[in-house]
Amino acid sequence: MNQKLLKLVQFKFLKISEDLVKNPQALKFKLEKAKDKLNKESVKESLGRNIDDLKTLMRFISAWLTRKYTSVPTQSIIYIVLGVVYFITPTDFVPDFILGLGFVDDIAVLVWVMEKVKVDIDQFKNWEYEKKKDK
């Protein structure tokens, strides 16, 4: 990831995410905004194959908020929230309205978050799988 983007993420969005983790109502609101944004066809096309990762982060936050899934370190939740918050921020490093480039930084942050919390994401996916299997 670009060093300027990394600094922005670490200094601005990390603090926002830390605050949101302590405020479930505000986090639910952000999650709803992410779902709304993700319903737009142009957004889906821009994210391409990365859409599944974003959906996983959103399911993870939802399961954590409802206390259905709590086996996760707070720091990992903060990074997962960061990935979603960055996605819904229209005026981030490369504003989303810039045709063709607006989601390049969103994808870079998403990939960075997925790598940073890979073990926790894998455990969450296994939990989801086991939950579905039991039904």
Structural notes for this entry:
This protein has 135 residues and is mostly helical. The chain has one domain. 75% of the residues lie in helices and 0% in strands. It has seven helices and no strands. Helix 2 crosses helix 5 and helix 4 packs across helix 5. The radius of gyration is 14 Å and the shape is globular.
Overall shape: it is globular
Secondary-structure-based class equals mainly alpha
Kindly report how far apart the N and C termini lie: 40 Å
Give the overall pLDDT as a whole number: 89
Helix/strand order, N-terminal first? HHHHHHH
Rg on CA atoms, Å: 14 Å
List the total number of helices.
7
Helix content: over 70%
How many domains? 1
Total beta strand runs: 0
DSSP strand (E) fraction? under 5%
Unreliable spans are none
Any chance you could write out the topology, listing elements then pairs?
Elements: H1 3-21, H2 24-38, H3 41-47, H4 51-65, H5 74-88, H6 104-116, H7 118-134
List keywords for this structure.
single chain; 135 residues; mainly alpha; globular
Q: Briefly, what is this?
A:
This protein has 135 residues and is mostly helical.
